[in-house]
Design a protein that fits this description.
The chain is mainly beta and 158 residues long. Helix content is 9%, strand content 49%. Strands 1-5-4-3-2-6-7-8 form an eight-stranded antiparallel barrel.
Length: 158
């Protein structure tokens, strides 16, 4: 079993946007908070991912590569609107940051994620990293599929 320990932050400015992002399309076959089952096409690869309940910023994660044709079919079976985004990678002081610029139903939202080895690991934040939203379930991708960002009445400041 693999454990994902991830912190999420809102992003400010455009300094982070370097290089060419990879297009993602993903949906949820199950978005139960105790387990999510995600189908994702990322560039020219596809994955089926099962995640357990989040405890703090950690959760069990199982990810398997699947044929893109299978993912195309499974995406048609998913709940709610599909999540569409472009992912950019930035390395800052030895840490890999994944920056997701959302489109479609979640247009206007940009989130940076960093995976850490443990929940107390220290790291320096780039200038473009804003407010931490790791503990706010509205920013989970599975939540964004059920309650898209562009339907929120109040949007948080970065």
């Amino acid at each position: 079993m693999s454990t994902e320990i991830e912190r999420k932050f809102l992003v400010k400015g455009v300094e982070w946007k370097q290089g060419v992002g990879v297009s993602f399309c993903q949906g949820y076959l199950s978005s139960n908070k105790e387990r999510t089952v995600r189908v994702r096409i990322a560039g020219d690869k596809a994955f089926l991912t099962i995640k357990g309940i989040t405890k703090g910023i950690s959760r069990a994660e199982f990810e398997y590569e699947i044929p893109v044709s299978d993912a195309d079919y499974l995406l048609k079976m998913c709940e709610g609107p599909l999540i569409k985004k472009k992912r950019y990678i930035q390395v800052y002081n030895g840490f890999k940051w994944e920056i997701d610029e959302f489109s479609g139903e979640n247009e206007g939202l940009v989130i940076a994620e960093i995976e850490v080895e443990n929940e107390t690991q220290l790291f320096e934040r780039p200038d473009w990293v804003g407010k931490e939203v790791s503990d706010d379930p509205r920013y989970f991708n599975s939540s964004l599929a059920a309650n898209p960002y562009n339907k929120w009445n109040v949007k948080n400041n970065v």
